[in-house]
Amino acid sequence: MRLWLLTMLAAVLWSQETFQAGAEAKKVRKKQKEPTPQHTEAFNTTLSNSEELDEGTKVTEGHRVDPHGSWMDFVKRPVGNFPGKCRKRKRPLPGPPGPPGPPGPQGPPGSPGAEVTQEVLLQEFKEMIKEATERRASVDKSGGSSQLPTALLALEGMVSYRRIEEAFHCKLRGPVVVDKKTLTELQNFQTPPAKGAFLRGTGMDQSTGRFTAPITGIYQFSANVHIDHSEVKKTKNQLRARDNVRVLICIESLCHRYTSLEMIVGLESNSKIFTVYVHGLLELQAGQYTSIFVDNAAGASITIQNGSDFMGMLLGV
Fold first, then answer.
1. Which of 179, 191, 301, 314 has the most CB atoms at less than 10 Å from its CB?
2. Phi and psi of 210, rounded to 5°?
3. Within 10 Å of residue 214's Cβ, how many Cβ atoms?
């Protein structure tokens, strides 16, 4: 009887121990099945070096770290994770231009340029053509001795022609009587209607018979004065040595102060009318004028016939 009771008591104790051991084993399995806690920090937040070191230490204690995966996570991180100083700053757009400023002071005048004439340009052009022809002839030697082309030969013999800006050829409109012992200025000219006469420029005043120089330069003048001395022949007195006629082209009507062109002829001609020819060069300043004077030193009056010529032109400066 006692043996049976002992057996029942041992069975009850063994069953309790088995139940407690099973409960404890279930608790252990539940604890193992609980998930590891996740970090709830924002994805874009950055960690300091100490926090990254602690985190790396914690991770290495739990499981191994994949280097490739960590690098890919770093590469694929969002751009907004950069600090503000690393972001590209936008430059402000330029505003509209302001009003122009006041003009500056005028600079000093430059040196005068060189005066290039048509003769200089033609000479340079001829030299350029000659140089190009010689260079071409030196390259092409297969044709024997090179000769200058016809165009260059024509240029060699060419003379440069320029337009004469100031020139005139006019004739006396009517007869002019010059009394004895009188110096008279010839006036009242006209341009002949026949072809061949010319009047260029504005220097010649035909009503006064004066040519005014537009610029300073060398001028050429000539005059053909037709003189009728029939009144001298009518006198019974014999001709004296001082009986002559002077034709002058004077500057500013001052024949003795300035250089003048002069021709003196006697009155011994047997013909009724004779011609006095005066020709020469004068240098005129701009604004000076020239005209024809007739000085009758005879004892009787003479008549200057209409059609007497007065000519002039600008030769150069």
1. 314
2. -110, 135
3. 15
Q: What are the phi and psi torsion angles at 13 (to 5°)?
A: -60, -40
Tokens standing for residue 258: 């300035």
Tell me the pLDDT band of 184, cut-offs 50, 70 and 90.
Answer: very high
Is the overall model pTM greater than 0.85, yes or no?
A: no
Note the pLDDT of residue 153: 54
Tally of CB atoms within 10 A around 228: 17
**Confidence at 39, pLDDT banded by 50, 70, 90:** very low
Tokens of 62: 């739990």
Q: Extract the tokens encoding 266.
A: 């006697």
For residues 171 and 310, give the distance between their C-alpha atoms in angstroms, rounded to a whole number. Answer: 6
* Half-sphere exposure for 187 (CA within 13 Å, toward CB): 5
Phi, psi torsion values for 195, nearest 5 degrees: -70, 145
Q: Are 77 and 43 in contact (CB under 8 A)?
A: no
Residue type, 3: L
Count Cβ atoms within 10 A of the Cβ of residue 53 and give its class: 0-12 exposed, 13-18 middle, 19 or more buried.
exposed
The H or E element containing residue 200 is strand 199-200
Retrieve residue 152's tokens. 């260059």
